[in-house]
Write a structure and sequence with these properties.
The chain has about 675 residues and is an alpha+beta fold. The protein is about 25% helix and about 25% strand. Strands 3, 4, 5, 6, 7 and 8 form a six-stranded antiparallel β-sheet that branches. Strands 10, 11, 12, 13 and 18 form a five-stranded mixed β-sheet that branches. Strand 4 and strand 5 form a beta hairpin. Helix 1 crosses helix 2 and helix 11 crosses helix 14.
Length: about 675
């Protein structure tokens, strides 16, 4: 009985007696599927049936499953026998060199048949283990080291060397456990985007082999679901002969609307049931929230292996921006599987066909993303915009806390988030900021301005809008000039203020606040260095002034509560933006003057159509902005307003009439229908 340590020489017949310890040097390896003999493990001596000297060696196997997963480790035992170089092939493998490159039991790869030749000494399932070497050079029974001439310790092959339950036809497999995707929810916990039942509708080419019939069915299906028949037929023709080409995904709750029975009757059409995270309707805040779709090849390639073909991922909007939070973390299960269904190991099921679970890590489900959108208000806004052909938007804010209640972009926006990201000249709605600029220059709501027919600055003549009432020319109080939207009255005062004054006043109303924002948002761009005609144009919301509908809703909200309002869409996501220290706070006098002007817009000015809206008084400002692009020209129609604890901006990119005549009716209908609810 003795202790064997690295460097000791063991003569033939000099074997440690039972329970003697051998100290192996070196740290355990962490290579995928590799083996190690940790320091301090015991070698147990015994005699086999042939009275050959044997040693039992503990082995540790480690599977490295990547940076985001803990390694899987388990232990087995290997039996070593002391043999002469010319020993018969009686189950012990002759000495061989098993390099690190060929010592890994590959995950998911069927094991080879048992091989005891010198050509392959890999410790894989179904393969003979290499010889251990206890020469003076190395007394450690190390796997993968060639044995010298003379008696040597060699492993007795058995599949259980790799795993206690292994058989010659076993293999290891790793399966991914998918997490449940987090929902997008409202502040009251109502799920806005959640799993809903759908039908995937397409052409199944495997069950429709005639090319002519494939083309006919593809065209008929496309026509029924609103796709380009020629384009879809081309996709079907280009797909493989066994392909299933999806035309559209529809909600099962809308089966009658889509005439599902009629679609099924088309030859070759297959409806596959599925579940997909969806909003209340197909259009619900889609430019804002995004969608969940099968990962594209580009997304898969850029994921570094985290996303595999067939995975569902966020596409656009918040679904993509907060993919990591919503997606969760994959889990896994490692199993030992009998690939041929033969007799299994000790723990295998009947017939050896049941897999043996080696390790499991549960998936971590995605976390919900809370948004401030109000479902009923969002649906109402989208309904009002449904008949507008060009880009359009309605944005709504609750002034008391800045929560964004609606961000609706009409169908003419073609999926673009016009409500939060559109960049447009605000026209006369910007006169609220211009009025604040003049108030800070010493004017009051009663200061009389000269509303002339035209106003000339550096040779450019500015005029009022077509149809401006002649009885409102001449001297007007500032509040009345705002109420009737007299351009010339404000431009005549352009020399009294600078572009920097205008930019600063706009900042007090929430315009131009720099990011970063927790959601995609354009807060506006107000030039602070404009001079001459550009400065004059800025006073009436043209020139270099650009805003989004949501930014103009923040203007109305700021007047409503008497302080700068910063929009909040994601209340649980830190958003470190807001007015900087240089932004002047609104005073009570300023707010009272602005409110009086916006109320006069409704009681006597351009937006009297809002006078009979039920509920609390409405304060508003209409706006019309001219635009030109190449050979095209037109007008943007705007309306901003607040009523109680609701501030709204309505925008139409290409309008036939003024802001009051085009955007005004939409705002009136919105407030009226809300009051009815």
């Amino acid at each position: 009985e003795r202790t064997v340590v690295a460097g000791d020489v063991l003569e033939e017949g000099e074997v440690p007696t039972e329970a003697a310890a051998a100290t192996a040097t070196g740290a355990a390896t962490t290579a995928p599927g590799s083996t190690s003999t940790p320091a301090g493990t015991a070698l147990t001596a015994a005699s086999d049936a042939d009275d050959a000297e044997t040693v039992t060696v503990p082995l540790t196997w480690t599977f490295n499953l990547g940076d985001d997963a803990a390694p899987v480790t388990f232990a087995t035992l290997a039996t070593l026998r002391l043999e002469s170089p010319d020993a018969d092939d009686d189950g012990a493998a002759p000495a061989a060199d098993a390099s690190a490159a060929d010592a890994t039991p590959a995950v998911g790869t069927p094991a080879p048949a048992a091989d005891t030749s010198a050509a392959d000494a890999t410790p894989a399932v179904g393969t003979a283990a290499p010889a251990a070497d206890t020469s003076a050079a190395d007394a450690t029974p190390a796997v993968g080291t060639a044995a010298p001439a003379g008696p040597a310790w060699r492993a007795v092959w058995d599949p259980t060397l790799v795993h206690p339950n292994a058989v010659p036809t076993s293999t290891f497999t790793v399966s991914t456990l998918r997490p449940t995707r987090g929902e997008i929810v409202a502040t009251d916990g109502t799920a806005l985007v959640t799993v809903r039942d759908v039908w995937r509708v397409g052409i199944d080419k495997m069950n429709l082999t005639d090319p002519a019939q494939q083309d006919a069915s593809a065209r008929e299906l496309a026509a029924r679901v609103g796709l380009d028949p020629g384009a879809f037929a081309g996709r079907v023709a280009a797909a493989g002969e066994k392909a299933y080409v999806i035309a559209i995904t529809i909600r099962q709750s809308e089966a009658e609307q889509w005439d599902v029975d009629g679609l099924r009757a088309i030859p070759g059409v297959l409806l596959q049931p599925a579940t997909v995270p969806l909003g209340p309707t197909a259009a619900f805040a889609r430019p804002v929230l995004g969608t969940v779709a099968e990962a594209t090849a580009e997304i898969i390639e850029n994921s570094g292996g985290a996303i595999q073909p067939g995975d569902m991922v966020g596409s656009g909007g918040l679904e993509a921006a907060y993919e990591e939070q919503l997606r969760g973390i994959d889990g896994y299960v490692v199993e030992l599987v009998d690939t041929e269904g033969g007799p299994g190991g000790p723990a295998a099921g009947a017939g050896g066909t049941e897999p043996v679970e080696i390790a499991r890590a549960a998936a971590a489900d995605g976390q919900p993303l809370v948004v401030t959108l109000d479902e009923s208000l969002q649906l109402l806004a989208e309904d009002l915009l449904s008949g507008i052909e060009g880009p359009s938007a309605i944005a709504a804010i609750r002034p008391s806390d800045g929560h964004v209640l609606a961000l609706a972009s009409g169908p003419g926006s073609a999926g673009y988030n016009t409500a939060a990201l559109g960049q447009y000249a605000p026209g006369s709605t910007f006169k609220v900021a211009t009025a604040l600029t003049l108030l800070r220059a010493g004017y009051t709501a009663e200061t009389v301005l000269d509303c002339t027919t035209t106003s000339t600055v550096d040779g450019r003549a500015f005029s009022n809008y077509p149809g401006y009432p002649a009885d409102q020319l001449g001297g007007l109080p500032l509040r009345t000039a705002i109420a009737y939207s007299c351009n010339t009255a404000l431009i005549n005062e352009s020399s009294a203020v600078t572009a920097a004054d205008v930019s600063a006043a706009a900042a007090s109303l929430g315009l131009g606040t720099p990011g970063p924002w927790a959601f995609p948002y354009f807060a506006g761009s107000i030039p602070d260095d404009a001079v001459g005609t550009s400065h004059a144009a800025s006073l009436i919301g043209q020139g270099g002034v650009l805003v989004s509908p949501l930014a103009m809703a923040s203007v109305a909200a700021s007047v409503a509560v008497g302080e700068t309002v910063v929009p909040v869409l994601l209340p649980e996501v830190e958003q470190s933006v807001g007015p900087d220290s240089a932004t002047a706070a609104l005073t009570e006098e300023e707010v009272a003057a602005l409110a009086s002007a916006m109320r006069e817009v409704v009681t006597a000015g351009t937006s009297q159509l809002l006078l009979d809206v039920p509920g609390e008084p409405v304060y508003a400002k209409s706006g019309t902005a001219e635009w030109a692009s190449g050979d095209s020209a037109g007008i943007h129609a705007w309306m901003i307003a607040y009523q109680g604890d609701l501030a709204v901006a309505v925008f139409i990119e290409s309008a036939d009439h003024s802001g009051a005549g085009t955007a005004g009716p939409l705002l009136r209908d919105l407030l009226t229908r809300l009051a009815a609810q």
